[in-house]
Structures are given as C-alpha cells and as structure tokens.
# Entry
Amino acid sequence: MASKTLLQTVLIGCLASSSYSLWALTPMDDDGLAGISGQDGITVNFQSDTGIQAQQITWQTDISTPQEALTQLNTLALEGVGGALAAQLDLDVGYDGVDPMLAINYQWGPSRFTMGGMAITTPTNATASMGQAAFYSQGALSMVNRGLFDNAGNKARLDFSLTGDWVYRQGGSGSAEMSLGNLVFSNRFTTGAAGGHADGVGTIAVDSDGIKVASDFTESVLQFDLMYNDSASDFDITGRTAMMHAGWIGGLKNTLFRVDAGGVGVNTLTPRTQGLHVLAQWDFDSDFILNLGHAGGNDTQLQLRDWRILGGGTGRMLNMDISLDVLQDGAGTGGLCFGMTGTTCAAPDYHNSTVDAGQSAFAILLRDSYLHAYSQNIAVDSLANVNTATPYDWSVLFTLGLLEADILVYPGGPYAEPDGLRLDAAVMVQSPGFWAAANSSDAATRAAAASGWETNTHFLLADISNDVGIGLMNADILWEADDLYFLLGQSDPTFPGLPSGMMLGTNALSRYQVRGAFGAGQPTALDSNAANVALWDFNLSTNQFRFVLYPTTADGSEALGFDGFLNLDGSSYLSLAEISSPQSAFRIYDVTGSIGWANGSITIRSENETADGLPSLTLENDLYLGQSANFGQGSPDHLDPLVGSVGFGDQNYGQMAIPGGVWHSEIIAKIPQ
# Structure
C-alpha cells in the first residue's frame, strides 16, 4: 500500500521530470533574478520550453479505515501551445482609505494540461482507468482583498476569465475524442444588471465551514460546443464536428459558493468519511440567458430569458449540494426515498446504492438540491438575426422541486479497450408528498395535495402573457441504472447496426418513471386554479438499453443525431387515473418487447430561417417497433414483439400486441403569434 502524501507525490514527480532548478534550495544569480521586478510590487515571469511533468498526483482519503483509498491522476504534463509555457504573476499592496489591501494579478498564455489516466487504488484492489483528458486554456485572474482571505466584510474584488477546450478519450492517441470546444468561462463581482455590471465587491474567505466565495451580484459566462471526432489525432482540436451549443450568459444575484471537507456519513460509514463537499446557490439577475442550440451553420440557438421564482417562494432560485467521495466493497450511500423526503421508507420507494463487492467507485451524491425558477421569455437567435430576435412571452417551464441523486462511477470499459467508465445511479426529481396525497382515500387530503406547489417539480408549455400552461404538474421523476457503460467511439458487438459515438448502454437495468398531475393551470398559482385531467404514471423499465449521440446534418446545419434501442422487461406500464377517484385507472401494464429509433435529429430555426416567419424546433426520427427494431442483434439478444395487458381499475381486459412496424416521426413545434 503506497503511503506517499499528495505533496510528496507532486514534489517527487516534478523533481524527476523537471529540467530547471528549485530557487529555494540554492542562491539565485543575476540570470535567475531576471524574471522578477519589484519597483511597484513584485512581478514574476515564468517561461519554460519543456513544460512541467509529474508522474502522479494522489488524493488519499480515509487513512487506516476500511474505506481507505488513493485516487490517482497519472502521467501529467503542462506545456505551452504554439510556443513556450508562459505565465506572469503580479503582487502589490495598497490602501483603500480604511484597510490595507493585497492585489493579485495572474495571467497565463496558451497552454495544454494532459492527464494520462485516473484510477483508484485501495488495500484490496486497483482499478482500470476512467480515460485520458486534456485541457487547453489561456486566461487571467485579478483579485483584490483585505489579505488573501477575509471574512469580516465585503471587501474583495474578483475578475476571472479563460478560454479553451476540454478533450476526453478512452484510449491512447488515435482513439475517438469528445470535447467541450470553444469553451468560455468568466466570473466577476459586479453591481448587478441594474447597475450596468460595474465593478463590485464580495467576499473571499476561509471560515469554519471551509472556503467561501460570495457576492450580492456577479456577471457570469459559461458557454461551450459539444464536439466529437471519430478519427482524432493526439487530443485534436482541429478536426472535430460540432453537435450542439450550450451555456449561459448574464448576471447572478446572492451568489454563494463553498468548498469544504466531508463525504458520505451513513450507516457503517458514521462518522462521516473524508471527501469533498461543494455548495453552490444563487438567484438569476434580469439579464440572465440560458442558450441551447446549434454550434455550426447559422448558430441558431434557443434563448430562455427573464427568469423568476415560482409563485411567491422564498430562498434561492437554484441550490446545488454535492458530495464527492470514494467508496468500496459493499459500502452504501444511505439510500433515497422516491416521492418523499428523508431515507425512511420501504420498497419500491426505497433505492439504496451500494458499491459492488470487491470493487471501488467514485461516489457523487446530491442532496437538498433544486431549481425553483423558470424562464418567462423565449427568443431564437441566429447569425441571420444577431441580437435582434423577437422575444415571445412563452415558456418551456421546468422546475426541479427536490433534486437528489446517488451516482457510483466505476473506472473501466466493457470491451477490449480497458479505459472507460460505468455507472450505478439513482437520480430523483421530486414533489415530496404529492403523489401519496393525490392517491389518498380521503377527499380532503387529495384536495390539499398540491399545497407545496411553489417548491415542486413542473413541466409545462406556458403562455406567460395569459398566465396559462399545460403539461405535468407536481411531478416525480426517477432514473435508475445498473451497470450502465459510457462508451466513446467503440463499436458495440451486440448491436453492430448502431453507429459509434457517445453511447450509453446496459444489459442489466435502465428504468425511467414519470408521474404527476396532467392538466392545465396558471404558472402563478398552480394549486387551487389548476384544472387536473388525470393522474399520470409512466414507468419504462428495460433490461437492455442503448442510446448513442453523434454528429449529423439537418437542413444544411450541423446537428445532434441520435439512435437507440430498448427492450422492456415486463414491469413497464402507463396508468391514467381519475383525479377524484385514483383507483379508477386505465392501465397498459406488464409490457414486454423491443423498441428502437434511428436517424434522429434535433433542429432549431429562427424567424429569419422559416417561410412563415415563426421560429421552430423539429424533432425527427424513425421509430422501430417490436421485431422491426433490428440493429443486427442476434440470439439470445432481444428482438421481440410489443405485448401488454390492458385494464381498467382491477379489471383485466386482455392483451394487445404489435409484432412489428416502422414509423417516421417528425414533430415540429412553433411559437404562435
């Protein structure tokens, strides 16, 4: 068992591979001082033709306990791009009229950081690698504070920005690569949108809870293009194809970001294990925009604008509470209860995630997270109408009432390529207590079921100007997966007819459940003013699942393509129940059979790109049913007709079957004038 500390490992790796001396160990001559000046503060210039290398960086957790583990980043290098590795650090002190202040300015030129692998080593086993990655970047950081950290008041100023590319692959040079290309990230303290985002102040501190960064207002940008290269060279950023664009731009309010120690702390893992805990929360300022769309062609993108909190709710619009840890050999996360708060419940609502015996996994836990806000305004922007797109008072209203998740990530792939990753997951987006109350035998309990609507989950298409929306209200959503692999550019021998790309696949379990009240209501009052049509409960449970994303073209633009296959395991169903009599439900249940889809694409068009002058979203694919869902799989893999039972209440009306069939589907959504 290795016993090196993180610092020892880094120093040994750097000393073993670095070609320049450590100034702290020997007197500095005039040449060594050439990069340092101090007339007004101190300036340090760094430059290296060979870059920096390290054999390994190790994160050691839970020393001398059954959960002891080493998370290892292997074969690391930082080098310049298009020239020498170069950076400059400026330090200065000053006085703001009240307090002495420290100013730090750091700039780095084009560089590439590469990681040759990420693995886990424990006293009982060592894992394969999750893959290799590279991060290209250049940027700057400017910070002024009362000392390096200060928790006594809002004195800090912060301005950070970078541009670059993140590239990931499962194998060596020449393997397929995915990337977040044309990455832009910036964040600075400001006076808010109403104040023109002039320079503002905040807090950068270390307190009893860890590192704290907070500000009343920030201006933030995070944007990237999802890209793919099936025949890449070594971390290639030139031969890629764009699939989609995503990101946000604009102001955030009441921001808080914390990083502190602590992992899982339940059952046999009490007291809390060592790990990393991250808390992020904020409100959206009036200029905040969420962008989704094309990354090529006319760069047509859907913009979700003008965000507001749901109802008269209090608290932050968004809260993310994340714990990161390493677990092994049967250790669990404590479990989650579907449709309710807490971890005290029984099957089938209780979902307990435990690490496979003799295995090690990265654990990602979300607790008490939510999005209690929605966009009130939509525009579709493109190169044909840059910054002039017509805003529409319509909303794709989605709120996340209570978001909780247990995700276990195991290093290693399923086929000849050893690098990769697989997941065991339980992800829940909930409206706690609604479903149980809506199905109560007591009329008064059913009538009050939506009383917590302001902090529940809703998915509606809404006309904001008339305060009306239709869709699923007070919903619970579950995604559950076992042995789900993420494959990059690898052919699946079970389904040779599926294209390669970014594939999710399992031969064990992938299950989706969506339930709630289907109907219409006022987004500003989804309780007493809602017109509920039915209690909707849809469960899609598969024992064989594949879903692959790949770059394609649609209407002359680069687009997001998708193919997939699933085989229903006999526990899938659809139930539509009367609101006033939940036991009176129309049901299609015990469904088995195969479903596939191919040649899928998603296309967005702005008002300047359509004949009728209305922006549109098109979802197009071929749907294969039953024995027509043939992607080259052979016995004993599934190619089965769709068969299900039909009933009403407790009465079974028999079975229906679809032996096979092919449908071409093209769904076009437009915003009416």
User: Anything to note?
Assistant: The helical segments are 6-17, 434-438, 443-447.
